[in-house]
Amino acid sequence: MKATLIVCFALLITLPCQGLTTRMAVSQGSAQNKGAILLTVSGEVDHPLTLTASDISALPHLTVRAKEHSGEQATFKGVALIEVLKMAGIKFGESMRGKALSTFFVVKASDGYQVIFTPPELDPAFTDRTVLLADEKNGGPLSAAEGPLRIIVPEEKRQARWVRNVLSISVRHAD
14 with 73, same domain? Predict the structure, then answer.
């Protein structure tokens, strides 16, 4: 009986410490990963980009509410996709005509999933929609299954172009 009580007491003392150690390691790992590359923008751009978590967190963020695939409402925070593409040298607004209208953006996820967006779908001169490159959901970071970056298109009826774990954007022109 004494031996059982001693073991139980030892477990009560060490288990919370192990959890603390794990939480500290995760927290420290997150801080170290601020410099890890989260997103590349390449292809037919003036300025190819490699963005880290720090780079993305320094950009102006928007908040949108949208219905998840499950039907639940969620609040997402992130950068308007158009702002990232402008940083790469993509022109929008009045210059969006002619060959510029044959441009498309391939957004690729870590699992190989890919979707396409076109400039008029992102440009305020053509639409009121916001396509968001989200890095937060409901006040916290995205889950490992969703992020660290996720495309959110709030007004679309289906979430087929809501890309989880976004890795890259390739800018191309149709022939």
Answer: no
Q: What is d(CA 14, CA 141) in angstroms, rounded to the nearest whole number?
A: 29
pLDDT tens, 117-175? Answer: 999 999 999 999 999 999 999 999 999 999 999 999 998 989 999 999 999 999 999 98
The residue written with tokens 């009986």 in the block is 1
Residue tagged 């923008």 (tokens): 41
Asked whether 125 and 96 are in contact (CB, 8 A), the reply is yes
Phi and psi at residue 141, to the nearest 5°: -65, 155
Within 8 A by CB and 6+ apart from 76, the residues are 63, 64, 65, 66, 132, 134, 136, 137, 150, 152
Residues 5 and 57 in one domain: no
Question: Do the Cβ atoms of 50 and 40 come closer than 8 Å?
Answer: yes
- Rounded to 10 degrees, what is the CA torsion of 12, 15, 21, 26? -140
Strands 114-117 and 166-173: unpaired
Structural domain including 7 reads 1-34
